[in-house]
Specification:
Helix content: 25-40%
Oligomer: single chain
CATH topology: Stationary-phase Survival Protein Sure Homolog, Chain: A
Strand order of the largest sheet: 3-4-2-1-5-6-7-13-8
Strand content: 25-35%
Structural class: alpha/beta
CATH architecture: 3-Layer(aba) Sandwich
CATH superfamily: Survival protein SurE-like phosphatase/nucleotidase
CATH class: Alpha Beta
Largest sheet: 9 strands, mixed
Shape: globular
Distance between the termini: 43 Å
Number of strands: 13
Number of helices: 7
C-alpha cells in the first residue's frame, strides 16, 4: 500500500488537453487548497496520445510561472520529466485531468489522461485520472471538488501497489449526482467510426473518429454507472497478464508446443 508519509505532501498535476485547458486549472485550484501543487502539462493538446514517450527529438521545458510548467511533449513525457528533472523531490500523488469528455471502457487504452496516471504508477507514485463525462459542459467544479476529496483520502490512506484509479464524473451540478460506485472497465465497439473522403485531386483519405458507440450491458461497469448518474471509480492494475488464460494454455497448449519444437 503506497501512501504519503510527508508532513507537507507534494502533488503533481498534468493532463492531455494542454497547459491552458480549463479543466486543468479547475483541478489545480482544488488541489492547491490541500497542499503544494505543481502543474506540469503538455504545451499543446495531446488528446488520445495514449502511453507514448517522445524519443526522436529533444523536449523543451518552459516555466510559465511559479509551480507551472509546460513541456512540448506528451502527458507521459510530463510525468517522466517532471518527476526526474523538475520537482525537487518525488511527488506524493499525481493527478491527471480534468478531461472534457468521459474516459470509459476501451477508451482507457487511448487516453493520454489515463496514461499519465499509468506512468506515475509505474514510478511507484499513487495516482488517479479524472474526466468529466460531458464534452460541451464547462462545469468542472463538481469534478474538481470530488478530485480534492479523493486526493485527501489517497494521501492519508494510500492505494494498493501497482494500482491507479480512473474516475469519471457525470456532467451537471453536484446535486444531480446520485452517488459513487466502484466499477469495472466496460467494453465498447464503434460502428461507422472511419469516414472515407477524397481531396480535390481524387485521392482517398480516412478520418478516424465518431461513429455509433455500443457498450456492454453488464452490471457494475463504468459506462453503466455514469449513465445512471453516478461517479465511477475504476481501479486499474498495471499487470495485464490474463491469469485464467495462462492456466488454461499451460494445461492445453504447452505440451503440444514443446513436442512440436
Amino acid at each position: 500500500m503506497n501512501k504519503s508519509t510527508s508532513v507537507n505532501p507534494l502533488i503533481l498535476v498534468t493532463n492531455d488537453d494542454g497547459i491552458h485547458a480549463p479543466g486543468l486549472a479547475a483541478l489545480a485550484n482544488a488541489l492547491q487548497q490541500i497542499t503544494r501543487t505543481v502543474i506540469i502539462a503538455p504545451e499543446q493538446d495531446s488528446s488520445a496520445a495514449s502511453y507514448s514517450l517522445t524519443m526522436r527529438r529533444p523536449l523543451r521545458v518552459r516555466e510559465l510561472s511559479s509551480d507551472r510548467y509546460a513541456i512540448d511533449g506528451t502527458p507521459t513525457d510530463c510525468v517522466t520529466i517532471g518527476v526526474a528533472k523538475i520537482l525537487h523531490r518525488r511527488p506524493d500523488l499525481v493527478v491527471s485531468g480534468i478531461n472534457p469528455g468521459a474516459n470509459l471502457g476501451d477508451d482507457i487504452s487511448y487516453s493520454g489522461t489515463v496514461s499519465a496516471a499509468v506512468e506515475a504508477t509505474m514510478l511507484g507514485i499513487p495516482s488517479f485520472a479524472v474526466s468529466l463525462a460531458a464534452i460541451e459542459s464547462e462545469e468542472y467544479q463538481t469534478a474538481a471538488a470530488f478530485a480534492g476529496k479523493l486526493a485527501r483520502m489517497i494521501l492519508a490512506q494510500g492505494l494498493p501497489d501497482d494500482t491507479l484509479l480512473n474516475v469519471n464524473v457525470p456532467g451537471g451540478a453536484a446535486r444531480l449526482i446520485k452517488g459513487i460506485r466502484l466499477t469495472r472497465q466496460a467494453r465498447r465497439s464503434y460502428e461507422d467510426s472511419i469516414m472515407e473522403t477524397t481531396d480535390p485531386w481524387g485521392r482517398r483519405h480516412y478520418w478516424i473518429g465518431g461513429g455509433t458507440v455500443s457498450w456492454d450491458s453488464g452490471e457494475s461497469s463504468d459506462s453503466q454507472a455514469v449513465a445512471a448518474g453516478h461517479i465511477s471509480i475504476t481501479p486499474l492494475h498495471l499487470d495485464r497478464t490474463n491469469y485464467g488464460a495462462l492456466q488454461t494454455l499451460s494445461t492445453t497448449w504447452l505440451r503440444q508446443l514443446n513436442e512440436s519444437a
